[in-house]
Amino acid sequence: MTKKESLQLFEEKKVRTVWDDKEEKWYFSIVDVCGVLTEQPDTEHARNYWKVLKHRLVKEGNQTVTNCNRLKLRASDGKLRMTDVADTEQLFRIIQSIPSPKAEPFKVWMAHVASTRLEQMQDPEKSIDQAIVDYKRLGYSDAWINQRIKSIEIRKELT
C-alpha cells in the first residue's frame, strides 16, 4: 500500500492529506478540517474541538467516528504523529456535525481535490504540470525546476 502525503490549502489554511494508491482514496486530517471550519487559532484548540465533537458523535450513536483511521502525518514540528483521518465520505458526515458557514465551500474544495487527483491518474502529464506550478509558487527558479523534473525521470529509469 503506497501512501503519498500531501499538503492542501483551503483559503490559505493547511490541511494535511494522504493519498492511498491501493484504495484510490484521499484521507484528510480531521483536526485540520475542524480547525479550518471552526476558525481555531491553533492546532491545540482544533484538537480539543475534535475531541469534544468525537465524544458527542459517539454518544449520539454516530458510527463515523468508529470507522475513522489513524495514520502518521507530519506535524508542524516536522515529526510524524498518529492523527485521526477520514476518507471523503466519512469527512462529509463529520462536516455535517460542525456548525460552520464554511462547510459548503469546504465540501466543494474537497470534491475539487479528489477530482484533480483522479485527472492526474488518467493523465500523468498533469501531475508534472502541477508540480511545476507548485515549485514556482514556492519560489524555485525555472532552471532548478527543470533539473528536478529531469532527476525524477532519471531516478524512475534506474529503479
Explain what this protein looks like in three dimensions:
By secondary structure, the chain is α+β, with helices and mostly antiparallel strands. It contains 7 helices and 5 strands; from the N terminus they run E-E-E-H-H-H-E-E-H-H-H-H. Helix content is 55%, strand content 22%. Strands 1-2-3-5-4 form a 5-stranded antiparallel beta sheet. A hairpin with a 2-residue loop joins strand 1 and strand 2 (13-20). Helix 1 (30-37) packs across helix 2.
Which key features would you list for this structure?
single chain, 159 residues, 5 strands, elongated
Structure described in brief:
With 159 residues, this protein is an alpha+beta fold.
Fraction in beta strands: 15-25%
Work out the oligomeric state of the chains in this entry.
single chain
Number of DSSP strand runs = 5
Count of individual helical segments: 7
Shape: elongated
Q: What are the secondary-structure elements, in order, as H or E?
A: EEEHHHEEHHHH
Radius of gyration: 17 Å
Task: State the secondary-structure class.
Answer: alpha+beta
What layout of secondary structure does this protein have?
Layout: E1 3-10, E2 13-20, E3 25-29, H1 30-37, H2 43-59, H3 64-67, E4 69-74, E5 80-87, H4 88-95, H5 103-122, H6 124-137, H7 142-158
Antiparallel strand pairs: 1-2, 2-3, 3-5, 4-5
Helix pairs in contact: 1-2, 5-6
